[in-house]
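Open question from group meeting: does this chain pack into something compact, or does most of it stay loose? Before anyone orders reagents, we agreed to write out a predicted structure and look at it together. Recording both the input and the output here so the notebook holds the full record.
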Amino acid sequence: MSADNPNLAALEAELDRLKAQIASVGFVCPGSVVRRYMPCGKPGCRCQANPPQLHGPYWQYSHKVDGKTITRRLTPDQARQYQQWIANRRRIDQLLAQMKQVSAQAAEILLRDATPAPSRPVQTTARAQ
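Structure tokens returned:
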């Protein structure tokens, strides 16, 4: 068996390996976590100076719900937790893409090796005139 032409048993083993990896992933969530530095807008504040010294860091988590972006502030510990969950989500997306590739290769083998069903003659009934 070459790497370019795996057999069905090797593909099934690869699929089992990918399923085990998915099973080991913890919590997942979509979205992103960013660290922001922001001005407050208060006149005379250091954030209004030239150059500005912005306030922060502030951690924010953003995700979409029904097409609307939802953003919430996080503590540093919460930000680390969300970053892990987001990384888990991306890992699952990668594993699913690999599973699609393995499945497509298996489908090619199964379709290629399938024996065609014997063709049967089509019977038609004569119409009464």
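Observations to bring back to the group:
The beta strands are 32-38, 55-65, 68-74.
The chain has a mean pLDDT of 89.
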